[in-house]
Amino acid sequence: MRIGELATGTGVSVRALRYYEEQNLLTSERTPSGQRQYPDSAIDRVLLIQQLYAAGLTSKSIADLLPCVVNGEATPELLTRLAAERDHIDTRIADLTTARTRLNAVITAATTNLRTGQHCQRP
């Protein structure tokens, strides 16, 4: 498939796909006219890259981990690194959950104050 088709199939911009290639996260073949051609498996790979970015990994980390994740191979060092990334994500989730709880409390208090006619006074 061509780069535009991969972009459409994954929801990732053409620019991002080119960046993935620059970072050695994704590979393509070139047609005689110079257009990029991707295998059908590129869709799953791009979606995995997106998930790893969303988890907070850098392109360098993803490039190091991707071959092992895709091939299912794991060394003790890789498992340690993946566990550390997972722990980092767990910490971020806990922080976001705490922030959401606080926001919910503020929204509840503000809604109650509006119903009773009380308004926030600025200092």
UniProtKB/TrEMBL annotation:
Membrane-spanning ranges: none
Keyword DNA-binding among record annotations: yes
Against Pfam families, the record matches this protein to: MerR_1
Example GO molecular function: DNA-binding transcription factor activity
Q: Which UniProt keywords apply?
A: DNA-binding
- Tell me which InterPro entries the record gives: DNA-bd_dom_put_sf, MerR-type_HTH_dom, MerR_fam
Among PROSITE patterns, the record links this protein to: HTH_MERR_1, HTH_MERR_2
Give the HTH merR-type domain ranges.
1-68
Q: Spell out the CDD domains in the cross-references.
A: HTH_MerR-like_sg3
Q: Could you confirm whether the keyword DNA-binding appears in this record? A: yes
Q: Which PANTHER family match?
A: MERR FAMILY REGULATORY PROTEIN (PTHR30204:SF97), REDOX-CYCLING DRUG-SENSING TRANSCRIPTIONAL ACTIVATOR SOXR (PTHR30204)
Q: What is this protein called?
A: MerR family transcriptional regulator
